[in-house]
């Protein structure tokens, strides 16, 4: 049962942004609160192909991206009814995924290194952060930021905000845009 106002989406609501920006957490909570379906591309990928670090070790990042793009395409094809979809941070690197996102409402969860640091300094099972989480996270966002910004319909600044604040702000952003 939704704990907030029920909501109907016109298109999939897709959360993008860097690792540990809160896509999986906010997507799940927002969907739950508003009685919407929810899917997480990493969760799907793990269910079908096993843990992400094992995929990186056995197949490499390139193969991971191909599997990821396939899962994302399958998720976004499940169009009825539109759902909240949280992507892995690097899913937007795939050009096919970029094209599919043109038919979705895309929200970029922006964040800075100070907010994210406590979330990533211990091992979080993200292969791309291994060894030097803060340095690698910073470099990854430097490279990807232009893509996040280009694909985003809406930007949610998550810096220093609680889940309750983010849930309310996301709802307001959607209403301002008449989405849903
Ligand atoms: N608003 C928030 N404030 C504090 N911690 C958060 C917030 N959102 C998420 N987290 C924590 O940050 C970590 C990463 O969140 P997650 O949703 O997995 O991010 P992503 O899916 O973007 O990688 C988790 O431990 C989560 O509990
Ligand atoms: O940014 C990335 O390249 C990745 C982000 C991760 O998802 P989160 O963004 O949910 O951490 C996961 O897909 C994988 O470790 C690769
Ligand atoms: Mg996630």
UniProtKB/TrEMBL annotation:
Q: How is the cofactor bound?
A: Binds 1 Mg(2+) ion per subunit.
Per UniProt, where does substrate bind? 42, 65, 89, 144
Q: Which Pfam families match?
A: SKI
- Do the record's keywords include tRNA processing? no
Q: What is its main location?
A: cytoplasm
Q: Where does Mg(2+) bind?
A: 24
PROSITE patterns reported for this sequence: SHIKIMATE_KINASE
Provide the protein name: Shikimate kinase
Keywords in UniProt for this one?
Amino-acid biosynthesis, Aromatic amino acid biosynthesis, ATP-binding, Cytoplasm, Kinase, Magnesium, Metal-binding, Nucleotide-binding, Transferase
Checking InterPro entries in the record gives: P-loop_NTPase (IPR027417), Shikimate/glucono_kinase (IPR031322), Shikimate_kinase/TSH1 (IPR000623), Shikimate_kinase_CS (IPR023000)
What is its EC class? transferase
| Subunit and partners | Monomer.
Query: What task does this protein carry out?
Result: Catalyzes the specific phosphorylation of the 3-hydroxyl group of shikimic acid using ATP as a cosubstrate.
Organism, scientific name: Arthrobacter sulfonylureivorans
Tell me the residue numbers annotated for binding ATP.
20-25, 126
Compartments reported by the entry: Cytoplasm
- Catalyzed reactions: shikimate + ATP = 3-phosphoshikimate + ADP + H(+)
The cofactors named for this UniProt entry are: Mg(2+)
Question: Family per UniProt?
Answer: Belongs to the shikimate kinase family.
Pathway in which the depicted protein is active: Metabolic intermediate biosynthesis; chorismate biosynthesis; chorismate from D-erythrose 4-phosphate and phosphoenolpyruvate: step 5/7
Q: Name one GO molecular function term.
A: kinase activity
Entry superkingdom: Bacteria
The EC code for this enzyme is 2.7.1.71
């Amino acid at each position: 049962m939704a704990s907030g106002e029920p909501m109907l989406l016109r298109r999939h609501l897709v959360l993008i942004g860097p690792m540990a920006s809160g896509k999986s957490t906010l997507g799940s909570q927002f969907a739950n609160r508003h009685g919407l379906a929810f899917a997480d591309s990493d969760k799907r990928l793990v269910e079908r192909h096993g843990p992400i670090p094992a995929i990186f070790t056995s197949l490499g990042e390139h193969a991971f991206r191909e599997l990821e793009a396939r899962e994302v395409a399958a998720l976004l094809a499940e169009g009825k009814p539109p759902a909240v979809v949280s992507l892995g941070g690097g899913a937007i690197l795939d050009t096919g995924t970029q094209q599919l996102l043109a038919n979705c409402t895309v929200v970029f969860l922006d964040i800075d290194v100070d907010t994210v640091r406590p979330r990533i300094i211990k091992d979080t099972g993200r292969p791309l952060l291994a060894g030097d989480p803060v340095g690698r996270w910073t470099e990854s966002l430097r490279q990807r930021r232009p893509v996040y910004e280009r694909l985003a319909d809406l930007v949610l600044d998550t810096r220093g905000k609680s889940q309750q604040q983010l849930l309310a702000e996301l709802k307001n952003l959607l209403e301002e845009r008449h989405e849903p």
